[in-house]
Amino acid sequence: MKNEKTVDSRYIQQHLANERTYLAWIRTALTIMGIGYLSAKLHFLSSLYPIDIGDKIAQIIGVVSIAIGLSTIGYATLSYIKKRTAINNQTFQSPSYGLMILSGAVFVLSILFLAYLLYV
To answer: Domains of the chain: which residue ranges?
Structure first.
């Protein structure tokens, strides 16, 4: 077997940077899901009263954070694949819509956390 250069080998540093970015997205997604799960779980463990607005907000925080986390993983995977192809074809353009959507989703989650803190 002969060591032949591949298209990927011409852009090694770009591909490695793409992988690091992908892994950062995955860590971000896991953190978002973990914080949402933890906050919802801690609320239910400390709740001494029947279901109230705080319970509903805690449930929403848990569900929204899991949804944002899963969406982030999907976006990161698709973005990684598109960037890999674009790097090899030398047609890479920096995306911005995905970042804006994720920022908006995290903003909504932050508003839910604020509502939770105000009502509990």
So the answer is: 8-119
